[in-house]
Design goal:
The protein is mainly alpha-helical. The protein contains 15 helices and no strands. The longest helix is centred in the middle third of the chain and has 28 residues.
Length: 359
């Protein structure tokens, strides 16, 4: 009996020793760095593209056009210049030195495009009376913003056939005002180029917005955007003259402030002198800084969208933003969906090389 108990005690002791040793054995660390986490990673949401709001977009456009970063405040020595420019702008909108007169062909061409009895050949003959207009019109017709076809447009007749009445109307209006954007001095070359890029993109975007969201009014959407571009040119050139009179170099922050504060007002006065419709005048009035927080008319909303969308396109073409940021910002501005994705493709498409044209 004693032997049996002793045997059991020995077995129990040995078992306890073995278990103790097992508990003290260190666990081997498993390196899982090579584990395939594809499934886990695929389940994570994609990163959200940065959205540039409207105010920041237009500020970035100013910096591009003026060739300098903007400060928070206008330097003290430039405040008097800002006041002098503001005073001069009250009459500059109708001063032939600064403001463009209504193109003589504008009423005739717009009537011709609207008239269903007018043939494309008759309209082409009307346009052909002005060789400069022909060159501008064909250059625009081959611009990716207006035409993404594989075959270049080399004649007025083909432009009218390819683009149709609405497209022709837009091109005629844009081509008639384009010469105003050609810089008169080396100082304004960069600004004028960026202003024109912005203007025709804004016009195209405003048209798409009007068609997709607001309803009819494509020509009016084109005209209000063109008027805003002309207003910016007038503000800029008046400011340059005021700076030159004081033998002072222009300040980018002061110039940007003047553009923000006065472009819409000057554009409205230009549109009034051209005897454009009350609807157009109202939409331009709604772009005044004091009105931007208020509800706008359908045309005013299309113009607001067009100005931001056009600016995003210019910034993309100049490498200031990428496609993801551009599309996200366009959507935030009210341009979501396939139609606006197509618009972004047009606005951000690289510029085509000049096409040899025939008359």
């Amino acid at each position: 009996m004693i032997r049996a108990l002793l045997f059991v005690a020995i077995v129990a002791a040995l078992t306890w020793i073995v278990l103790s040793l097992l508990r003290r054995t260190p666990r081997v660390s498993v390196d899982r760095s090579d584990r395939d986490d594809t499934t886990t990673l695929a389940a994570l949401p994609p990163p959200v593209a940065t959205v540039v709001d409207a105010a920041t977009t237009l500020r970035m456009l100013h910096e591009l056009a003026l060739g300098a970063s903007l400060e928070r405040h206008v330097p003290a020595e430039h405040v008097k210049v800002v006041s002098a420019v503001a005073a001069a702008l009250h009459t500059a909108a109708t001063d032939p030195k600064y403001a463009p007169q209504r193109p003589m062909l504008l009423p005739q061409l717009l009537r011709a495009v609207d008239d269903s009895d007018s043939t494309r050949r008759e309209l082409a003959q009307t346009i052909a009376r002005d060789p400069t207009l022909v060159d501008s019109l064909l250059a625009l017709a081959n611009n990716p913003v207006y035409h993404r076809g594989s075959q270049p447009i080399a004649s007025i007749e083909r432009a009218l056939a390819v683009l149709g009445a609405e497209g022709a109307r837009a091109l005629v209006a844009a081509a008639l005002v384009q010469p105003v954007f050609r810089a008169g001095t080396n100082d304004g070359e960069q600004f004028s180029a960026v202003a024109w890029e912005h203007t025709y993109r804004a016009a195209a975007a405003a048209q798409v917005h009007a068609a997709a969201v607001e309803g009819p009014g494509l020509l009016a959407a084109q005209l209000v955007a063109l008027a805003m571009g002309l207003g910016a040119i007038v503000v800029y050139r008046v400011a340059l003259d005021q700076y030159a009179a004081r033998q002072l170099s222009p300040n980018a922050t002061a110039m940007a402030l003047l553009l923000d504060e006065h472009t819409a007002g000057v554009a409205r006065r230009i549109a009034a002198s051209w005897e454009l419709s009350e609807r157009v005048l109202t939409a331009l009035e709604e772009q005044q800084p004091s009105s931007l927080g208020e509800p706008a008319s359908a045309l005013g909303r299309s113009l607001r969208f067009g100005l931001v969308a056009g600016a995003l396109g210019v910034l993309r073409n100049n490498g200031r933003i990428d496609d993801d940021v551009g599309l996200a910002s366009l959507s935030a501005a009210g341009g979501a969906g396939p139609r606006f994705e197509q618009l972004w493709g047009r606005l951000s498409w690289p510029q085509s090389s000049p096409v040899r044209v025939s008359r």
